Amino acid sequence: MGTTVVPMNGTFGSRKHPLIRTRKKFLTAICFSLACLVAAVADERIILPAKINGQPVRLAFDTEMSHTALFRSAAIKLGLEIIDPPRDQELRPGAVKFGRAACRLTLGSKTQSAEFAVLDSAIGMDCDGALAWSDFRSNIIQIAAEPRAVTFLDKLPADAAKWPNWKLRSVPAEDMSSNWLGFEIPRPDGRKAVVFVDTGSDQGLRLRRTHLKRWVEKNPGAPVTLEAYYCPGFADGLVVAEQFWAGSYELAEGIELRELPLSQSPNAEAFAEPDYEATLCLFALTRVGMIVDGIAGRVYLQPCPSPKAEYAYNRIGALFAPHDIRGGDLIARVVKGGPAYEAGVRDGDILMRIGDLDATKWQTDPRILPLSRFWSQPAGTKVNLTCLHQGTNMNLTVELKELFPGAVSPRKAASH
Questions:
Q1: Residue of 186, 272, 366, 396 with fewest CB within 10 Å of its CB?
Q2: Distance CA 135, CA 116 (A)
Q3: What single string gives the DSSP state of each residue in 172-210?
Q4: Of the candidates 160, 155, 137, 150, which has an alpha carbon nearest to the alpha carbon of residue 3?
Q5: Chain-wide mean pLDDT for the chain?
Q6: How many CB atoms lie within 10 A of CB 367?
Q7: What is the pTM of this model?
């Protein structure tokens, strides 16, 4: 019926529609999402094994990337010739500069010429770059978050044709989000709601600020923790935000998502689309089956009847992040009543040590980032911290707790 791309197996794409369209135009601006201090580890992305000029690379499948791209460190390692944009180039909000590099790309058994954007990354990443959905849009693809996989289909399955489905979002090419995967849901009042899909994030469901606020007001006392991510090109920069747990959330008629985290979307998404309402990230995609028919311009969703998935989230109820991603102290933001707060951590404290690790060397010691590796361990794990509080070092022990009752911890997941 189709070919699974992750893990790599056979051929993919269609003969009629090449997988990567070579771009002759000089690429000068890009808008995309990157995880930061809570960057996803390798098994929390959809990774496509590939080769560039015969050398193996790891490329993430990211449906909110504007262009297929390589990180500069990977491009240099591969020996590619990088053509950079002019230094004085002006950018619109949400855009960052990038260069370009031509190469021969191999995915499965297919090799062809391709052109990649070349990005400077402010943080360490777990892959060499990413493939944008726009290079797959003329195919029928199934996106699965559990297991992480993209499957190319020859035709729409007969059972999927009966699923709830909506029109693919289509906007002018000059729109900065024109290459993002999104679809339109008609609302009873006659307006449309735009929902994006972001396979580059391991979050659950991101909501427009007003929608999340409304949900929180209707669900007082909902379980909460904190998360952080990097939004380049916007004033957000490094974003620290609350993350809530929902027993259920009705995305559209016939689509009720069960047991998943909710968080506020970055300003980039609302800025890009006035009718924006929500974003389905990887964990939310474990709650639904999804097929994107790029030929017919439709997105098909089917709720999973008994969704189960391990969710690696912040189990200490605190984050330590710098004011500037380029450097500085790791400063605490704490949920009152959470495990870190109960252990004595307070807003404004500076993280000095995690066990025997010197946390002040977070920019140079690869053992420290992402910090999420410490906070997302199973409930019951004890983490020793040294924090600077009002000029005095405090040695604290924080016991991680299952803050989200519907989440499956790594320890519980192993027993399934």
A1: 366
A2: 11
A3: -TTSTTTTS-EEEEE-TTS-EEEEEEETT---SEEE-HH
A4: 150
A5: 83
A6: 11
A7: 0.85
